[in-house]
Amino acid sequence: MNLIRKLNQSISTIKILAAVLIIFMLITVVNIFYHFIAGQYETSTAVEISTSNTESFQCVYIRNEEVITYSGNGVVGYEVSDGGKLGIGSVIANIYNSETDIQNKQKINKLQSDLELLKKITNPGTMEVAQPSTLTTLIEERYKNIAYCKDIQDFERLSTENSEFLYLISTMQYITGQTNPDITSQFENKIDSINEEILKLQREMSDPSDTITSDKSAYFVSYADGYESIFSKDFIDSITADDIKSVSENEIRKNDNGNTVIGKLIDDYRWNIAGVIKNKDDVFKAGDTVTLSFESSNDKIQGTIDEIRPSENDESIVIVSCDVMNSELVQHRVETVEMSVQNYEGIKVPRKAIRFNKDGEKGVYIKLGENIIFRKIDVIFEGDDYVISAANPDSDYLMLYDDIIVEGIDAAQ
Questions:
Q1: What are the Cα distances from residue 231, in Å, to 136, 193, 234, 312, 321?
Q2: Distance in angstroms (rounded) separating the CA atoms of residues 375 and 366
Q3: Which residues are CB-neighbours of 300 under 8 A, at least 6 positions away?
């Protein structure tokens, strides 16, 4: 009997141990399964981002301008480039009898430029200060600048860089060839040849039949569009959205009196643009400093919003003032511009990852190893599907390169 009783007790113990083992195994399996399922999060790495509030619109240039004309007899030879600054009495253009005179004048200008360069190179003062090692460094620098200007299509600066590059190369050739009489004589012969060519062209030219000068300090543009008397600064207060939308690019050859137009004078380097914008959420405000990117210019221009005036159909008229003048910006009356205000820099956060903790604080959950942690965010910009959180060194806040949980069963713990 005792043997049977002991045997039954052993069997019961084995059953209990087996049951415990089965329960333990079930718990382990469930735990593994749970962590497997719970670990299936969609995550997004917290990265740095920079953005700004931007709006693109058609703008109209507003400047105080005066159209310049002449009789129409003869051919115009301009003495100033578009956007060039004029003083009182400065020559705007000479009127010649033929195109040949214009071509000869252009050749003379080019030869005189070459002559000045050669004189600068062979100047004894250049020999005293220019060193081959320094010139080599400058040549390499100019070469890189030329490549850069080509890439960004900044042709105005490219011309300047090319001229400087030519000067440095020629100076290096002249300095390193001082012990070679042939090099020295080449430069001297070139100077003599250019002087002779200039004299020859001058003898072939006729004197100008007329000279057009400026009667005030101003900037010059070699075209007019007929809007000069309409889009002046006096018109700003009364301009309407329809006025802006109706403007088109135009060029006139004669004014209302039948005189031939050769260009116009712009009174001031300060000018305005006017445009029609939606200005959703009042992103742009009077007094804001904005960055303007025009289709015609590679430069980014700083401006100030002078006024935002409500118009029809939830639109607003924006008036911006600027004080930068260059040849590209005076070539048009109307063009597309991109206006940006306030640059935002911080951490990009997917909008659908945002949660609130038990204290009502806005943030996201991140995955840190096997742990799920709540990190607060400080929203400084809101996009359509993301926000930007300001960088904060506090460990309670989201950090760069954290794994943000975007979707998952524990995303909203």
A1: 51, 51, 8, 21, 14
A2: 7
A3: 291, 292, 293
Q: Which amino acid is at 181?
A: P
CA–CA dist 325, 299 (Å, integer): 11
- pLDDT at position 314 is 87
> Taking Cα atoms as reference points, which of 191, 193, 197, 146 lies closest to residue 168?
146
Q: Which residues, in sequence order, are bridge partners of residue 397?
A: 376
Domain range summary for the chain, segments of one domain joined by +? 1-38, 42-51+346-407, 54-66+215-343, 98-205
Fill in the amino acid letter for 108: I
Q: Say if CB 227 and CB 311 are below 8 A apart.
A: no
- Does 210 have pLDDT greater than 50? yes
Least confident of 130-134, 235-239, 289-293, 361-365: 130-134
Give me the amino acid identity at 301: I
Contact present, 388 and 49 (Cβ < 8 Å): yes
**Residue whose entry in the numeric block shows the structure tokens 């042709």:** 155
Residues 54-66+215-343, CATH architecture: Beta Barrel (2.40)
Residue 361 pLDDT level (bands cut at 50, 70, 90): very high
- Which CATH number is associated with domain 42-51+346-407? 2.40.420.20
How far, in Å, CA of 121 to CA of 135, rounded? 12
Q: Say whether 29 sits in a helix, a strand or coil.
A: helix
Q: What is the pTM of this model?
A: 0.64
Residue 207 dihedral angles phi and psi, to the nearest 5°: -70, 150
One-character DSSP codes across 185-215: HHHHHHHHHHHHHHHHHHHHPPPPSEEEE-S
The pair of structure tokens assigned to 256 is: 């209302």
- pLDDT confidence band for 31 (50 / 70 / 90): low
